[in-house]
């Protein structure tokens, strides 16, 4: 499972197309049904083009989402964004992670969690834009993380956030 920072609806596309074809054809982005089921074009893209796993956000049964993702992992790799929504504040590198990443990892301890940092996508496909602006983006993949039984939720999420932030080479002087 790939987990990445989230700045644009183009994030999952960039990550998805960067994967080798044999990996990509079995990889599904996880996204909010509230956004991707609005209108026929979004629904077509979600179901027919990207084969998204759509989840109901904000419900009163977070275990149902964890189970839905765990079931999908039996047959597919997934792309998730643990921040839960796109980051709009350029002064904040990451929003706090939602707990879903922890619960999926705990339920699937053998699962490789691959951190992926995506930079500049917020300028390529800003909120409200449909057509991308032709600018360069960078994508960095890190070493996989695994669930550790001795780790509580807070420690696991801090470790996952740190793994992602360590890939943010733009902040370290590489542009």
From TrEMBL:
Q: Name one GO molecular function term.
A: 1-acylglycerol-3-phosphate O-acyltransferase activity
GO BP, sorted A to Z:
phosphatidic acid biosynthetic process
InterPro entries in the cross-refs: Plipid/glycerol_acylTrfase
Q: According to its UniProt record, in which pathway does this protein act?
A: Lipid metabolism
| Phospholipid/glycerol acyltransferase domain sequence ranges | 1-121
Keyword Acyltransferase found: yes
Q: What is this protein called?
A: 1-acylglycerol-3-phosphate O-acyltransferases
Q: Which organism is it from?
A: Aggregatibacter aphrophilus
């Amino acid at each position: 499972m790939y987990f990445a920072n989230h700045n644009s609806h183009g994030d999952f596309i960039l990550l998805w197309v960067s994967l080798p074809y044999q990996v990509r054809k079995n990889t599904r982005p996880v996204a909010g049904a509230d956004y991707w089921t609005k209108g026929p074009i979004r629904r077509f893209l979600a179901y027919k083009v990207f084969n998204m796993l759509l989840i109901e956000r904000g419900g009163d049964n977070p275990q149902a989402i964890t189970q839905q993702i765990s079931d999908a992992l039996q047959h597919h790799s997934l792309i998730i964004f643990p921040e839960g929504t796109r980051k709009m504040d350029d002064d904040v590198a990451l929003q706090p992670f939602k707990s879903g990443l922890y619960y999926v990892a705990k339920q699937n301890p053998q699962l490789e969690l691959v951190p992926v940092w995506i930079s500049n996508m917020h300028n390529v496909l800003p909120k409200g834009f449909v057509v991308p602006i032709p600018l360069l983006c960078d994508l960095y993949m890190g070493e996989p993380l695994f669930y550790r039984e001795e780790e509580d939720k807070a420690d696991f999420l801090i470790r996952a956030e740190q793994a992602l932030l360590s890939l943010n080479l733009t902040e370290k002087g590489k542009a």
